[in-house]
Amino acid sequence: MKFSTISAVLPAYNEEENIETAVGKLVEVLESLSFQDYEVIVVNDGSQDRTAEISERLAQENRHVRVIHHNPNKGYAEALKTGFYGAKHELVFYTDSDNQFDVKELKNFLPLIEENDLVCGFRIYRFDPLTRLFLSWGFNLLVRIIFRIRVRDIDCAFKLFRRTVFDKITIESKKFFVDAEVLAKARYHKLKMVEIGVRHFPRTAGASTVRASHIFSTLMELAHIWTNIYIRKR
Question: Taking the model in full, what pTM does it have?
């Protein structure tokens, strides 16, 4: 395998019911793959439940697990940014802490990262409320048109990057536009990307933080990022 080390980023906000399982599954998968070294980075984004306490215990029990705390909550994009730029290894993988993906499918991404800068998962079938499905469909269509991104599931939280991607891309988003921003800037910098299907499962614990009220702020971020990429060239 071309790459021998990997960092896995888990953003977490009020995921006390999910975080131990999420970390445990990731550790199990990374142990089974042929990496010389790995780390699981839990970014506790100002959780108000026991997420911080549980994460710290997991880090004490396993040297491959480390926790970065935000206090107060800074938002999804900032959590990912902290994890991405804090990653130490050659590859950077991220998924959410809600256990809606099977992290065993990471093994299918590894052959593809040999020839690409980033590998994007797309949900073969998505288990989310109808309202969220509709909003996501509209968002994906809009972003694909405006930024000419040939990715069908832009906000899928299952992606693998070469660490060097984040030497070229500066993340400016503060909330939920972060996936679209990374892909838009990757396209602008002519980085190679590919898609692969992943299974998606219903959330069994905790609650999503995505709300319809986030639409306006997301559109504002879209306009800001478009201006910075195509007008200010940054």
Answer: 0.88
- The pLDDT tens digits for 56-105 are 999 999 999 999 999 999 999 999 999 999 999 999 999 999 999 999 99
Question: Is 193:120 a contact under the CB 8 Å cutoff?
Answer: yes
Taken in order of first residue, the domains within the chain and their CATH numbers are: 5-230 (3.90.550.10)
User: Tokens at residue 164, please?
Assistant: 């060097």
143, 173 Cβ separation under 8 angstroms: no
End-to-end CA distance of the chain: 33
How far apart CA 76 and CA 52 sit, in angstroms, is 16
Q: Give the angle subtended at the CA of 99 by the CAs of 95 and 89, to the nearest 5°.
A: 30
CA-to-CA distance for 154 and 166, rounded, in angstroms?
18
Determine the residue type at 73: N
